[in-house]
């Protein structure tokens, strides 16, 4: 779950401070609560009331003791509910004789809505109030109102109950997509979307495609992009909807988002790329997704991330991310139908050489990948895989202290040794001597299957 760094603040009129007017108005709230419609022609009064409610709800320690019975009375809550949608309704036309007053009304309506929307934050457990926020967001273009809606959605999403409430609220997906296009609100909207995605997918097909556009093209904040990456990861974690969200472009967007982020790495580990590699590794564990992963060019994606001008990405990858990347190739290589695509469309050996470090699990996955790709394939295909670099890598694996790594490396070397075209490399690199040394220095009962 993701938390924003700070909560949103409603713009305050600094000339209107807490004092006798607010407390007097607070005492009159219940009286005014049944007069909302007649008072709609008196925007100044409504503005004062909404400002009063918002001021008192920010003083939680006083509100709970002194004003709780008033602020949370059903009639007052109904006023807040209706006024939160106040600015979304059309204002009366400006009259030549009362132009100044109506202009002031136009200015006060958004402020009234913004203050009421901000007040709802303290009553977010009410489903009707969340619906009011969604309607206010979808019907308003006022920045303070949109900011209050976005921050409230983020706050509600912090609890399991709040996430379930948001997940079942009609129109929320459209509202969050709209907020995601606002530079001022996009961080809060991203947090809300990410946290709701922990529970399930709230977007329909068209809304999800629109969210993909927002994530890829509309985010102008590094932090918002990072949160969007977590949203995509969460969406891919639900088995029931996984196939549909992949079809709607979530996995494609994830790869593109990771590519965009690796173009502008900062001074620390790259979280978006790490999440993407983890998601791909999880998907590769299910054979049904292999074709989709390969069609999206995941092997070229890996090669591009560890070579050329993006080679600096290697410095930021954690050991766990390296395991996921190599494990992804290992899972793909376990399916014989993928061998042709892996051998012809990607330089698997180069990827493995860049990603393998001293980690035992990473080395075991790499050795198994090379063993799988050289097993039961034509000699011409083996030559493509078993290059000088691949043999050097396997010889390094033979020196591992782990029995599984040595055994898998020896099996891969054994597969390569069946191709006579590679004999000169075996002689030049003294592969036979390396195998004998392993047999002499380790337990002879170790199962080294090398057909040399």
UniProtKB/TrEMBL annotation:
TM ranges: none
Pfam families recorded: HEAT_EZ
GO terms classed as biological process: nucleus-vacuole junction assembly
Domain of life where this protein originates: Eukaryota
Keyword annotations: Repeat
UniProt-recorded name of the protein: Armadillo repeat-containing domain-containing protein
Species the sequence originates in: Aphanomyces astaci (Crayfish plague agent)
UniProt family annotation: Belongs to the beta-catenin family.
Gene Ontology MF: a single term: protein-membrane adaptor activity
């Amino acid at each position: 779950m993701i938390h924003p760094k700070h909560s949103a603040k409603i713009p305050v009129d600094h000339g209107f401070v807490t004092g006798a007017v607010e407390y007097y108005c607070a005492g009159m709230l219940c009286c005014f609560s049944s007069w909302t419609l007649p008072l709609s022609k008196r925007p100044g009064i409504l503005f004062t009331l909404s400002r009063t409610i918002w001021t008192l709800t920010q003083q939680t320690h006083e509100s709970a003791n002194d004003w709780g019975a008033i602020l949370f009375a059903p009639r007052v809550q109904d006023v807040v509910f209706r006024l939160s949608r106040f600015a979304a309704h059309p204002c009366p036309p400006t009259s030549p004789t009362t132009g100044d007053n109506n202009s002031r009304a136009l200015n006060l309506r958004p402020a009234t809505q913004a203050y009421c929307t901000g007040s709802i934050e303290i009553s977010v457990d009410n489903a009707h109030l969340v619906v009011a926020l969604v309607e206010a967001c979808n019907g308003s273009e006022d920045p303070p109102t949109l900011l209050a809606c976005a921050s409230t959605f983020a706050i509600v999403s912090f609890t399991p109950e709040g996430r379930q409430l948001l997940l079942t609220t009609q129109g929320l997906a459209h509202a969050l997509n709209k907020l995601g296009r606002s530079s001022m609100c996009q961080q809060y909207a991203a947090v809300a979307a990410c946290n709701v995605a922990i529970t399930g997918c709230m977007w329909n097909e068209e809304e999800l495609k629109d969210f993909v556009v927002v994530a890829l093209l509309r985010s102008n904040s590094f932090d918002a992009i990072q949160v969007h990456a977590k949203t995509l990861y969460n969406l891919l974690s639900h088995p029931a909807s996984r196939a549909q969200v992949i079809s709607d472009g979530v996995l494609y967007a994830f790869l593109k988002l990771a590519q965009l982020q690796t173009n502008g790495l900062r001074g620390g580990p790259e979280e978006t790329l790490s999440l993407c590699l983890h998601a791909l590794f999880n998907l590769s564990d299910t054979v049904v997704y292999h074709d989709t992963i390969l069609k999206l060019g995941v092997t070229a994606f890996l090669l591009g991330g560890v070579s050329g001008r993006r080679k600096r990405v290697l410095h930021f990858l954690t050991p766990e991310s390296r395991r996921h990347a190599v494990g992804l190739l290992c899972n793909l290589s376990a399916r014989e139908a993928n061998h042709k695509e892996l051998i012809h469309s990607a330089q698997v050996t180069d990827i493995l050489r860049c990603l393998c470090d001293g980690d035992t699990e990473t080395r075991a996955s790499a050795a198994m990948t090379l063993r799988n790709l050289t097993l039961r394939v034509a000699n011409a295909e083996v030559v493509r895989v078993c290059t000088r670099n691949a043999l050097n890598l396997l010889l390094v694996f033979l020196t591992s202290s782990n029995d599984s790594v040595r055994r898998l490396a020896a099996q891969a070397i054994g597969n390569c040794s069946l191709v006579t075209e590679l004999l000169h490399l075996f002689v030049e690199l003294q592969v036979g001597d390396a195998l004998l040394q392993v047999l002499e220095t380790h337990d002879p009962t170790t199962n080294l299957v090398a057909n040399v």
